[in-house]
Structure formats: structure tokens, C-alpha cells
Write a structure and sequence with these properties.
By secondary structure, the chain is an alpha+beta fold. The protein contains 1 helix and 9 strands.
Length: 134
């Protein structure tokens, strides 16, 4: 007998119970985060990554990745004014896919612009950003 404890009986049972409790809590946390991630976006709402630049008098919005969106469902709102979306449909499928760009002609005096990309089919706002002007 050494130390504070008179007997070491039951120590392995307590350690085992603590390990089971730790595993249970960890699995519950992983399950909760997974369910939350799956529920965070409405079903059918496209997700995309875009990049925008201004070249001469054109706003160029590049689809960098994510879901494809039919051109007919897209609406661009630049400083409160709606523009139709048409772009370089490289594969001819009628949808804005990764690697394709939408070009919008701008007025000569365009400065800093607030841009929103809206999906009319799902009624959702896909992306908003501000781009500097000429």
C-alpha cells in the first residue's frame, strides 16, 4: 500500500466508464454538426463561388466553382438595376457552369458598384459583392 489510496480496486472500471462517456459525447457532437451542416441550406438552392472584375466598360463575373445555374434563372442586380444574365456558354448546355463568365456592359461613369446574383427559380440570393469601378 502506497500513496493516498488503500486499494486500486475499481480504478479500471472508472477509467473504462470515463472513456465510454468521452466516446459517446464525441459521437453525439459529430452527429449534431453533420445534421446542422445538412440543414443549413434550403434544398435545391444552388451554391457558387464567383470572381468579378471590371475591364474597360464591362463587368465580368467568372463562375469559379459550385452548382450550375440555367442562364434563364439568373438575374443580376447592379446598384438596384436588374440585368439579364447571358454569358460564354462554352459547352452549350444553357447553364452557367464553372469556368464560364457573364459580361455586363456598364455605363461609362460606373464607379463602385454593389452587385447581387439572384436565382429566380428558387427565389434565393446566391451572391452579393462590391466591385470597384473604372
Amino acid at each position: 500500500m502506497s500513496g493516498l489510496y488503500l486499494s486500486e480496486e475499481g480504478v479500471s472500471e472508472v477509467v473504462g466508464e470515463l472513456m465510454l462517456l468521452f466516446i459517446t459525447v464525441t459521437l453525439f457532437a459529430i452527429l449534431t454538426l453533420t445534421v446542422y451542416a445538412l440543414m443549413s441550406r434550403p434544398p435545391g438552392q444552388p451554391i457558387l463561388d464567383v470572381s468579378a472584375s471590371v475591364n474597360n466598360e464591362n463587368l465580368i463575373i467568372q463562375h469559379m466553382g459550385g452548382d450550375s445555374v440555367p442562364y434563364g434563372d439568373l438575374s443580376l442586380i447592379i446598384d438596384g438595376r436588374e440585368y439579364g444574365a447571358s454569358g460564354s456558354d462554352a459547352n452549350g448546355n444553357g447553364a452557367w457552369d464553372a469556368g464560364e463568365a457573364i459580361t455586363v456592359s456598364l455605363p461609362a461613369q460606373a464607379g463602385r458598384m454593389n452587385v447581387a446574383i439572384y436565382d429566380k427559380a428558387t427565389g434565393s440570393l446566391l451572391e452579393t459583392f462590391t466591385v470597384g469601378g473604372l
